Amino acid sequence: MAVSPSLIAALRGARGRCPACGKGRLFAGYLKQTGACAACGAATGEIEAEDGPPWLTVLLLGPLLAALTFIAARHETWPLWIRLAGLGTFAVAAVLMLLPRIKGGLIGVLWGMRERS
Fold first, then answer.
1. How many domains does the chain have?
2. 26 is in which domain, residue-wise?
3. pLDDT tier at 3 (50, 70, 90 boundaries)?
4. Are 38 and 14 in contact (CB under 8 A)?
């Protein structure tokens, strides 16, 4: 079974690599895109993900964080400051870890859709 080129581009983007070749870096910083791939010269900086990555990150993490909040509320033996600090730290760490991967994956999907047109 052949793998879709759009899926390959999305997986490359999620790893932070160029969706075209998979070798060059997609980001120059945390979320700042490079203008072009250093390996193949593909113009990845022209693809704008805009509001998609934060929206999708909230959509994915929201139910998980809500469930963890309900679970933490049931553990009344733990002090409130430990529960709040733990949930806050987990939420911030999860967003910081997931956001660049989602942005790269979305850029890869948009790259794959552009290649088909």
1. 1
2. 5-116
3. confident
4. no
